[in-house]
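FIELD: query
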Amino acid sequence: MELDIEVQEILRHLAQMGMAFGLALPIALNREHSQEGAGLRTFPLVAIASCAFMLVGMSVYEGSDAEARVMYGIITGMGFIGGGSVFKNENGTSGTATAAGIWLTGAIGLAVAYRRYEVAIVLSVVGFLIFQFSGFLKRAARD
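FIELD: result
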């Protein structure tokens, strides 16, 4: 009986990490297609890693303040990874959207870990739509 509960938890965690991967995929495909910095490898890895770190933290710390510190660490880490994609040169700054996208996919992973699927789905859809259509809108606004 106890083994069945462990197997169920393992399957649920695998499903959650798969969901985090799947929800990051549209953003990753868009970035890969437009050849804008991070892409098909980075975004899904960020989402599943964030989800996995939080799932482990939730299992180990079970609602304590330490669990919140795990989340804060993930949020900070995603900012650090995203910061590596920002470049400043004489023409301005580039990579800020990629950095924000990395942070967003980290949030998708966290939302999935906490079974807040509605939040994860909204983040995925909005992130994809912004990346898909913002280039067009930016060009239109400049002209």
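FIELD: remark
Residues 2-136 form one domain.
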